[in-house]
What does this fold into?
Amino acid sequence: MPADFIHLRVHTAYSLATGAIKMKELLKLCQAGGFPAVAVTDLGNMFGAAEFSSYGAEAGIQPIVGTVLNVTPLIPEVDPKTGRDARFESPDRVLLLVQNAAGYANVLKLVSRSYRDADGIVPPQVPFEELESHAEGLLLFTGMTDGAVGRALLEGEPERAAEVLDRFHAAFPGRTYVEIQRHGLRDEERIETALIDLAYAKDLPLVATNDVFFGPRSMYEAHDALICIRDGNTLNQPDRRRFTPEHGFKSAAEMRELFADLPEACDNTLAIARRCAYRVPKRKPLLPNFTDGSISEADLLAEKAKEGLETRLEAHVYTREMNAAEREEAAKPYRDRLEYEIGVIVQMGFPGYFLIVSDFIQWSKAQGIPVGPGRGSGAG
It folds into this structure.
């Protein structure tokens, strides 16, 4: 029988140095547990969406794509020491699930906006208004202790929690879910009753999630070490960031037992899976045009490569004693090889790719940023 609960908040290895589940391992866990569907919701990115859609379909698991997005808090928070607005340093989080093509386009815009405007100091995030204007085709989960509603309750401001929830519901009508999590954390227990009361008062559905960062419980210690590596801490530091053994991939039976008093919150995971019937389509890589059209990418690549070759011939091949004929003879095998290499690159349709990689490598060198190790553009 298929599982009677669906995991809708899973962080894979694409939640960089935070999630510890590889995509194919996740799908094997789903197959073993009888899960007909699963959602991948990596932190602030959609890096694995296309891969997940493809692998999920092949494995017979319905892929649900989404992300956990940072949103700038609505209320300004002035740092008394600096006088600056400190809310950007600790954004709220919402979970977004894609229902259709419009939702996928919107979540890509939101994620791109968060990184495009990032200054490298505060976490990438989007303004609340941006979230509201890109709501079509998306389901929204309010988050638990890291969401705007939960945070307001933790700070003893139930009126603000209600206002934020109203604003979510206005932007995502019929698509807003009040999220409940039970990892045994004190803050979760402090606000759970208030969250449930808010959901009932506003006639909004509850949804049970487990914040999954690793697979079976046996992976907990390895994941704990991963978090230490990410944060630059050691395992024996008492005040470091920690997850719990409950942040793993639980069985449907475990989740049903955990939420035995709120069966509707588990039932809603099945209803949500039925609402998210979108698969990222396969397509060839889409590269931007490197040139403005005044010269073709193939011609520009050949021009730059030949300039580079002449510089290297002068530095490494020609000697002072060589006359013009000898220089031409010494250069011929290099020039012939270059023509062959350029021909292969053009035939494969990669001149734009080489120019793009060359562009950011040269920029990095000009800024004094080390590049390398010289084997493959990805490593570079």
